């Protein structure tokens, strides 16, 4: 979704950026934001109590996403990053309504779909949660910009629980990946979109399966770049913050979240239980 020409003069570059996902997945986006925008304060909400979102109804995903959005607005965030494909696919309009034009909203599907539509000219595969695939949003968004691209989407619901369990480099994860990627739907693809922010945590295993045959899109990088462009456009980039802060709220504190957030953000992260 394009951010409308807005007046954000009530916001200041010093305010934090709010990011949310159901769990550790959004950390792949947060990490890229930190790398690209190293002076920004970040507030992350991981809704670990309710994951996986991919198995929930649209109504439940809307309820969780709008509550978190309101919470991030209360924390004075200057932008909201929906670092979750499932929330984007099922609750983007409702999140936009909650925000009511007060801050820019960046999602993880539209910037990726637009880039792929303009830069890729071959068969594209998308792997994602059930709720994302059922929405058909990737196909719609890509084909809106380029109707000649063939897009095949496959639901891969076992990956999120495996990632949340910390099964990286594990035989179980290898066989799940092999099973899904050898599906006939993905047989002729030349490009793969990881349509769930959890999946970049398994990017090595996924690339290993394909060798050099398939190009895997770096969605977190595309999203972080898009955020950079939007903040710059509205003069909201923080470029002079010597000690940026990273605050993490979790609706259920899990060992795996602690482990991955510490790996990406350092040992002394500020992690707090918050049930909305
Ligand atoms: N990381 C999420 C996504 O991008 C959500 C996965 C889930 O909770 O099912 O879709």
TrEMBL record:
Q: Write down the InterPro entries for this protein, in alphabetical order.
A: Asp/Glu/hydantoin_racemase, Asp/Glu_race, Asp/Glu_racemase_AS_1, Asp/Glu_racemase_AS_2, Glu_race
User: Keywords, A to Z?
Assistant: Cell shape, Cell wall biogenesis/degradation, Isomerase, Peptidoglycan synthesis
Give the Gene Ontology MF terms in alphabetical order.
Answer: glutamate racemase activity
Name the catalytic site residues: 84, 196
Quick one: which residues bind substrate?
Answer: 21-22, 53-54, 85-86, 197-198
Catalysed reaction equations from the record: L-glutamate = D-glutamate
| EC number of this enzyme | 5.1.1.3
Q: Which Pfam families match?
A: Asp_Glu_race
**What is its pathway?**
Cell wall biogenesis; peptidoglycan biosynthesis
The protein's job, in short, is: Provides the (R)-glutamate required for cell wall biosynthesis.
Q: Report what the protein is called.
A: Glutamate racemase
Traced from the root, the source organism's taxonomic lineage reads:
Bacteria, Pseudomonadati, Bacteroidota, Flavobacteriia, Flavobacteriales
Primary gene name: racE
């Amino acid at each position: 979704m394009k951010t409308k020409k807005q007046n954000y003069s009530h916001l200041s570059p010093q305010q934090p950026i709010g990011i949310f996902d159901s769990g550790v997945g959004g950390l792949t986006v947060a990490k890229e934001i930190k790398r690209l925008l190293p002076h920004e304060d970040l507030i992350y909400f991981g809704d670990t109590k309710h994951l996986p979102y991919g198995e929930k109804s649209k109504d439940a995903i809307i309820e969780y996403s709008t509550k978190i959005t309101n919470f991030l607005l209360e924390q004075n965030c200057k932008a909201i990053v929906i670092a979750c494909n499932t929330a984007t696919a099922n609750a983007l309009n409702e999140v936009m309504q909650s925000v009511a034009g007060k801050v820019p909203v960046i999602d993880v599907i539209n910037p990726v779909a637009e880039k792929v539509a303009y830069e890729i000219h071959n068969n594209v595969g998308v792997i994602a949660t059930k709720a994302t695939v059922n929405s058909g949003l990737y196909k719609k968004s890509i084909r809106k910009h380029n109707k000649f691209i063939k897009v095949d989407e496959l639901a891969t619901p076992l990956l999120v629980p495996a990632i949340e369990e910390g099964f990286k480099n594990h035989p179980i994860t290898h066989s799940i990946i092999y099973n899904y990627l050898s599906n006939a739907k993905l047989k002729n693809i030349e490009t793969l979109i990881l349509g769930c922010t959890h999946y970049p945590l398994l990017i090595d295993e996924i690339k290993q399966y394909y060798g050099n045959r398939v190009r895997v899109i770096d969605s977190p990088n595309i999203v972080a770049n898009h955020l950079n462009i939007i903040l710059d456009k509205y003069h909201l980039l923080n470029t002079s913050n010597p000690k940026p802060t990273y605050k993490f709220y979790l609706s259920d504190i899990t060992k795996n979240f602690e482990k991955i957030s510490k790996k990406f953000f350092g040992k002394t992260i500020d992690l707090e239980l918050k049930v909305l």
